[in-house]
Design a protein that fits this description.
This protein is an alpha+beta fold. The chain has one domain: Ubiquitin-like (UB roll) (Roll). It is 26% helix and 21% strand. A five-stranded mixed sheet has the order 2-1-5-3-4. α2 runs antiparallel to α3. The protein starts with a strand and ends in a 6-residue tail after the last strand.
Length: 92
């Protein structure tokens, strides 16, 4: 199991600060998102668009780096990686 941290509106959507999902060392972000969708379909719907691509409504950080800057949904996750789900933030 891997505990994912949720922030801001994602906490409201999930109804909790964290979500536990099945995990195997070396699995991809894609598999993680599939498991999130099974556990919490509303949260999964925010992460992916209708084509199965990252929607941009949720940033998935793998050990502090946005997975889009790594290998996107094909980014592998290590046992020691912290995974965080964050909605986009704007301000001024």
């Amino acid at each position: 199991m891997k505990t994912l941290k949720l922030f801001a509106t994602l906490r409201d959507l999930a109804g909790q600060k964290t979500i536990d999902v099945p995990f195997t060392h070396g699995q991809t972000v894609r598999k993680l998102v599939e498991d999130i969708t099974l556990i919490n379909p509303a949260l999964g719907a925010e992460i992916l668009d209708e084509n199965g691509d990252l929607s941009g409504a949720v940033h998935i950080l793998v050990h502090g780096r946005n997975c889009e800057w790594l290998n996107g949904l094909d980014t592998t996750i290590k046992e020691t990686d912290i995974v965080t789900l964050v909605p986009p933030v704007a301000g001024g």
